[in-house]
Write a structure and sequence with these properties.
single chain, 286 residues, 434 Repressor (Amino-terminal Domain), 2 domains, six-stranded mixed β-sheet, 13% strand
């Protein structure tokens, strides 16, 4: 069979792992379709793994080991790849980072914090140390770097279309000094003005609304069903049951309907940034 373009295995553990997988597969004379037959995964999923762009799930590693008679090689190396892909992210968030790269559209609700890819270093440090006060400087620096690397989600021309709903308290309850908070909010406005993502602010006077339980993120894909992700301080959960995701998506639609329009929301963020800059306590929406 014709060989695909070579993979540079020197780029890191995931690409080395993927290159070895492709070499074993092609040496056995198997196509992508033939390799995933009998598993729960598609050929595009396996192709992403071979390019080092996705992490191989344990059940697929076992399937590949049995098919290619590799004596447990890929199952044993799963942990190495998982650690390499983790970086400064929490373990439960690694799969979400990989999904973001494939998403066509992302919709998010944040009741308490600015979304990670929009956070600047002072904000990231404050959030990280609030959850992990004993964290080393090296680990905090890794969190800052990993989170800023995700800025492409709102700043790159190739980013997914994004829609954000933020609670007003995200703006009006500062977790960093006023000058830093002003800079942080001004950054959000600057990014949103590029029209690659659209914000809405849910006023504090809105009363009861969907998603009172916490944050939610919806991701849709060209080649896979949509998923929803939610998290608390030390854990996260991916929800992929189609009926449940659909129910949550309907609730998100009602949430958007209760929030301010995008342009009005941007003006509110701008005004709040100016209030911080001028030493004023931001006013609540009346």
């Amino acid at each position: 069979m014709p060989r695909s373009k070579d993979i540079d295995g020197s780029m890191g553990v995931p690409t080395f792992y993927g290159k070895e997988l492709r070499w074993k597969r092609e040496s056995a004379g198997l196509s992508l379709e033939e390799t995933v037959a009998g598993s729960f995964y598609g050929k595009s999923y396996l192709s992403d793994i071979e390019r080092g762009e996705r992490r191989m799930p344990l059940d697929l590693a076992r399937h590949v080991d049995q098919l290619l008679t590799t004596d447990g090689f890929f199952e044993r190396r799963c942990e190495d790849v998982r650690r390499a892909r983790r970086g400064g992210h929490a373990e439960y968030f690694v799969d979400v980072v990989e999904m973001e790269r494939r998403a066509q559209e992302i919709e998010e609700w944040d009741p308490m914090l600015i979304p990670g890819p929009l956070q600047l270093e002072p904000y990231i440090r404050a959030v990280a140390l609030a959850a992990h006060p004993m964290e080393s400087d090296e680990r905090v620096a890794a969190k800052v770097e990993s989170r800023r690397e995700r800025a492409w989600l709102f700043e790159s021309e190739g980013a997914p279309e994004s829609w954000l709903v933020l609670h007003e308290s995200v703006l009006k309850q500062p977790i960093i000094p006023p000058d830093a908070m002003a800079e942080q909010l001004a950054h959000i406005v600057e990014v949103m003005r590029r029209r690659r993502a659209f914000p809405q602010i849910l006023p504090r006077k809105a009363g009861a609304h969907p998603f009172l339980m916490g944050m939610a993120r919806f991701m849709t894909f060209a080649d896979a069903p949509p998923v929803m992700y939610t998290e608390s301080m030390y854990s996260g959960q991916l929800i992929d049951d189609p009926a449940l995701v659909k129910q949550y998506a309907k609730a998100y639609g009602r949430l958007k309907a209760a929030a301010l329009p995008p342009e009005e929301s941007l003006k509110l963020i701008e005004q709040t940034a100016e209030d911080y800059r001028n030493g004023k306590e931001p006013n609540r929406i009346e």
